[in-house]
Fold each of these.
Amino acid sequence: MSGALRIRPLLTATHRYEKTVSTRGRGHGVYIEAPILAYLIETRNGRILFDVGCDYHKIATPELRARYLEPMRPTFDVPEMSQTQRIPEYLQRLGLTVDDIDLVFLSHLHFDHAGGLCDVPGCEVHIHRDEVEAADTGEVSGIFDDEIAERDNWRIQPAAYSPAPGIQAIETPGHTAGHMSLFIELPKGPPVILCGDAADLMENLDDEIAPGYCWQDRETQAVDSIRRLKQLAAQEGAELWPNHDFDFYRTLPAFPGFRE
């Protein structure tokens, strides 16, 4: 019996940045448009959100934009995000509310993956222990203190585990200290592996090239994680879904469509 009933991709924002952010050592001076994705996973045991996108307030409020996001230029432009791309808006279109979310699974703590926690208050949040410990050093860029202020209430995971039957969290460190990806069995189609930022683009997978940013320059660890994902996909006949690849995203069902 499969673990999930369906997966809905959610386009939470778009982001223009220098390609070398996604492909280590490649793409200096070349800028790409990338989707910022979350996924709503419906299971027989409840609903899981994989990542939650950005904090809309930091994008829409000039003072917050200037404080948090403008300093990232010119490597990163400020993400473009509309009110309709917030998680509660997507849920409302499905006749749901935040109360219908049983678990938020964070691949890692960068602002474009964890910032939207402010829109899902009260939800149970799962994150890898190494990710929180690295964030607590204060040495990780791209993490904002206010977005992880509730971490003492999160379910800290020390290793790979199963958040629901037929769904397996996979340790894929390198891009960040405690990055996790998610393997999902489906009732009709092949299994899906949500890579998170272990692989931003299909290029990362095809060429086995690390993301541009690696925690403490652990490029070898990041490439090992990519190879582990590819090996698992080959063993299980699974599809690998990179996280910031527009060409790939356009092959997925548009909301409210889903894969099952």
Amino acid sequence: MTVKTLFDVAPTLIPVIGEDSAFPVRRIYCIGRNYAAHAREMGGDPSREPPFFFQKPRDSIQVVRPGAVVDHPMPPLTKNYHHEVELVVALGSGGRDIAPADALGHVFGYAVGLDMTRRDLQNAMREAKRPWDVGKGFDNAAPVGPIQPVAQVGHPARGAISAAVNGTVRQNADLADMIWSVAEQIANLSQAFELKAGDLIFSGTPDNVGAVGRGDVLTAHVDGLPDLTIRIV
């Protein structure tokens, strides 16, 4: 029996550098407080406690192509809108209980991303012991650049990661400063979820996250990957 769908829902697709095909997004996982200095500025303990994760809806992605300055709508309800630059990991395969030694074999490629955050709403939800969705999972909350396949970029374990607002660098760190490596994040996530091709992992942000407003131009950078630039409108 053929079943008709009620609505046409467009898939979320991210361009892949050097290929005509696109990467179809299945889920978006984000790790919290994965750089020690950022953990401190958020009031946390930077020691290697078990990592924690949250999710964003896949249609919260805003694709930003290389060289473009994309208009990024200021979301409603917030008076404290923050940038968080992150290395994004795109999985080409998955599984359960993946060993750290095998984890990188499931990575298809990498991209630059921004975990945009309505910080005032996130903080209010955290204080009320409620979920963060309203602060993290809104429309366009996940700007992301094109994916660079592993065959082209390898597995970045060190190199600059930064965010600049109107040409002034705010966040500036090294990928080597991660508390939990990409392989460890994949292994840990696979204990709680069956990971699959199409999953993205936002691997954490350095310190000096801060507010942006209308008219600000925000550029996110990770060594070896195309920059991502948005204008808050």
Amino acid sequence: MSLEDKIIITCAVTGSIHTPTMSPYLPTTPEQIVEEAVRAAEAGAAVVHVHARDPKTGMPTANVEIFREILSAIKDRSDVVICPTTGGGIGMSVEERIRIVPELKPEMASFNMGSMNFSLHHMLRKYKEFKYDWEKEYLEMSKDFVFRNTFKDLEVVAKVFYENETKPELECYDVGHIYNAAFLVQTGVIKMPVHMQFVHGILGGIGTHIDDMIHMKRTADRFFGDNYTWSVIGAGRNEFRLCTVGAIMGGHVRVGMEDNLYLEKGRLAKSNAELVKKMARIARELGREPATPDEARKILGLKGKDKANF
């Protein structure tokens, strides 16, 4: 099977959206995040997307040393591509979020393509009691939160990426973000070929209808033709539905507990590996073999794990 037919499965291991109350299986300590990342890779993920959390409370953190501990341990145990976040968590500054790139020089990292309302407050309708005091306040404050990524921010962040030979994964939460990416390519801020992540289902961004994803893909096609790669995220119950259609359309996919806590309706996933195994099975049934980490590196044009600073 040629590389063009391979599908890159990314696993977003913990994220900054779900809180510890929402699932007893959500990894929050460095040891748990590392174990989940390694098991996800063994299950078929070529890329793991990593956030860090405070090991005592499970609250999202931008602490570089916690990131270093997590990323180094994953690298020691697995050949998987490690893609840390520069999106961080609610309330973090752009400077805090980007710090890991010059410090750790990963092969790839997420790069958000525009400002938006990014709200989690609707989750309060489902959860009334919380394991930690910070959880309710964290969800409530998102109702008045603007996820800041101005054009000035984007120029600064892009410069940091290229100075450290880190491939940007362009996170597009709506169609306007694709237009932003195209403008940054046209003005030389971002280099081709690009890798785009279409993010569906965040309150404040584009929805989860199949037509929404097709519109995102058609818009990207107009700007970038065949000179880009793309992946799709479906938040919550839409994870496997959107990823399946994305796989049929020739895209790559992302699953994991950052995006979705359930293996099926009413059944919590006990590990990220369960989510990856399900997606790998679906991909194979569609005639697409999951890419290995080294195949993903070739498809995405990455510098190699030996050039990361962790």
